[in-house]
Amino acid sequence: MHERLSFFVKRDSALHPLNPLTKIVLALGIILVSIFSPWYWTSHVLLLVVIVPLVFIGKVATEYFTSALRLILPAAGFIFFMQAFFQPIGQTVIFNFWFLDITQESLLFAFRIATRITVMISAFTLFLLTTHPSELMSDLTRRGLPPQFAYVIISTLQILPQMQAKAQTIIAAQRSRGLDTESTFFKRIGSVVPLVSPLVFGSLVEVEERAIAIEARGFTSKKAKTSLYEISDRSSDKFIRWGLVIFVIISIVLKLWLS
Hints:
Low-confidence stretches: none
Mean pLDDT: 79
Strand order of the largest sheet: 1-2
Distance between the termini: 55 Å
């Protein structure tokens, strides 16, 4: 069985050939504009007019909306209800449950925060789906980032897919030995315990094996390193990056001016 070691999905789209730094700046630019913009509707516009079209341009709609259902919407929904019920602002009560009140002001505030969280996770998810970790590491090291820092970034991006792949392998092995993972809820909770030890110890062994492998390839060598693949950085990439930087600066200035 082929194991995915990252969230990257290979597609022939307009987003995939962009320089990895451009896609990082794009994700950070979307997030910063959502945070610093003085207008309530900015996050909603970014989600509907920027992120969703980019998802279809990048041809990763299926993977994005699957992630949205599993991760983004539950996280945003939890934030929404916590802010709506426990944010002590406003006087116009529109819903009351026991000692908890939802005011019109707290509801609008909760919706704004939940949408902002959705935009932030969506921007980062789009970046992960369209950027291969090896290309990101090669480009960052080429720009002068120490290999140790680049390795930490790449390992962080890969840890969840690797853990998911290893967990699926362990579950399949345990099922072949008769472990019940599809019956009642409490039995499924109990079946998680036999999976924890192989997952944790297997991950620690993988870390050691990877450390030995990268050391054998001269990871800590002071010699100049070359890359098998040349990561393109076209003038259009630079134009997009500078445009995003200017857009973020404008948002911050407007925030300070109108506040």
